[in-house]
Amino acid sequence: MTENTSSEKSKKAKKQHANIMLAIVGFASVIVAVAIIGFFALDRDPDLIQGQMEVEEYRVSSKVPGRIVEIRVKEGDYVNVGDTLAILEAPEVQAKMSQAQSAVDAASAMHEMADNGARKEQIQGAQQLYEQAKVAVDIMQKSYNRVQKLFDEGVLSAQKRDEAYAQYKAAEAQMMAAKSQYDMAVNGARMEEKKASAAMVNRARGAVQEVNSYIRETVQTAQMAGEVSEIYPKVGELVGTGSPIMSVSIMNDMWGTFNVRETQLKGLKIGSEFTAYVPSFDKEIKMKVYSLKDQGSYAVWKATKASGQYDVKTFEMKARPIEKFDGLRPGMTLVLKQK
User: Fold this and answer.
1) What's the pLDDT tens digit per position in 302-312?
2) Which of 144, 199, 239, 327 is the most exposed place for a label (fewest CB within 10 A)?
3) Sign (positive/negative) of CA torsion 34, 36, 39, 42?
4) CA atoms of 14 and 142, how far apart (whole Å)
5) Burial level of 89, CB count in 10 A (0-12/13-18/19+)?
6) Helix (H/G/I), strand (E/B), else coil: 333
7) How much of the chain exceeds pLDDT 70, in percent?
């Protein structure tokens, strides 16, 4: 009876061992099957590259500081070239205009005086002095001739004759000086003085033109057609020189930007065309690559193996839609699927 009991226990232990082995084999088979299915399933899934739409924009700013007195557009408005966007108040510029205009007036007056020469009264006075000097020379010449005749006759001494001659020559010199003053009054300023006065007028007018350019800066207009994307200051606030007032997006110049690892390029190059999915419209658009740039060592990279044999760098790829797509906006998501 003891032998029968021992035999039954041995059979029972063998049966349990066989069941355990069978369970282990079955579990291992399930794991292998799941791994194989997952491997092939993952291998067939597409590799997704996500990007977004970007837009070219420019910032509206003024060369002169001022206070915002009016903003004539709102965010989202479409503006054309020449449309008034904002108006600034700059009292300092107006004051400079008054100064510049006064300088023009003063320089113009000096230039006119140089062109016109001496006044009529000055010319008449110089002429009278000249005529008077001529009369004095005529009298002194006659007196000298009489003295010379008396000297020749031996009546007067040589000293008297010399004194008469000196007086005659002095009167003649005074006449020449008077004639020079008269000629100068008639001819007016010298050519060099006229050129200098004309240059001063041009300089003053240049200052006025400069201030006018600053005044034009107080009225900001659209330089290119586009959509007002953001307005920074409020009415009544001060803005400094070059401070942005608003940003205008050029809606006809949009592109998509993708960050692509070099292992995902798979033949993508400048000029390549591909299809991108736009989730916002649940549609696909055709795009063409126009820029491909290495983002540098600072960009995100990925090791190809855990041990890290080499690094995979990231490239910035830019592409434009081949055909116009209505409703496409900057910031919208783009998805590039690679199989």
Assistant:
1) 555 554 556 77
2) 327
3) negative
4) 172
5) middle
6) strand
7) 74
- The Cα–Cα gap between 156 and 17 comes to 175
DSSP symbols for 97-166 = HHHHHHHHHHHHHHHHHHHH-S-HHHHHHHHHHHHHHHHHHHHHHHHHHHHHHHHHTTSS-HHHHHHHHH
Instruction: Give the helix/strand (H/E) hosting 189.
Output: none
As a whole number of angstroms, the distance between CA 148 and CA 131 comes to 26
Sheet containing 66-71: give its strands across: 219-221, 84-89, 66-71, 238-239
Q: What is the pTM of this model?
A: 0.56
* pLDDT in the model for residue 4: 52
Distance CA 73, CA 76 (A): 9
Contact 268, 114 (CB under 8 A): no
The pLDDT of residue 130 is above 80: no
Q: What is the pLDDT of residues 138-162, one digit of tens each?
A: 888 888 788 788 888 777 788 878 8
* Nearest by Cα to 223 from 57, 104, 88: 57
Dump the DSSP string for 18-82: HHHHHHHHHHHHHHHHHHHHHHHHHHHSPEEEEEEEEEEEEEEE-SS-EEEEEE---TT-EE-TT
CB 240 within 8 A of CB 92: no
Chain centre distance of CA 38: 57
Query: Running DSSP on this structure, what letter comes out for residue 302?
Result: E
CB 198 within 8 A of CB 111: yes
**99 or 75, greater pLDDT:** 75
Q: Which of 281, 205, 210 is nearest to 53 (CA)?
A: 281
